[in-house]
Amino acid sequence: MRGNVVDVDFDITEGKPAHVREINIVGNTKTYEEVIRRELVLAPGDVFLRSRLIRSLREVFDLGFFAGPPQVIPGRPDENGDIDITLKVEEKPAGQFRLGAGFSQLNR
Length: 108
Hints:
Layout: E1 20-26, H1 33-37, H2 50-61, E2 71-74, E3 83-88
Parallel strand pairs: 1-3
Antiparallel strand pairs: 2-3
């Protein structure tokens, strides 16, 4: 027995590409913002591309200063679909240096 055949047509219209308005960086207390920004391959004014955002996150994490990749907090899109992006970083604890010495009567 053959089932019924249904034809379905989709009409897909691509919208206007979204642009990045601002990129805010929060959570950095020791690392200068410009150090983080120079690793970003996505910049304000660029067309938003997920692949460039992911690469930016990887580049920032590869600096070695952070406990994990930045958390992305997207803003609400405006009437054109353009967005602000906030990158929240968590810095690793600062390194510690210890020096110890000892003396004993047995070492004479």
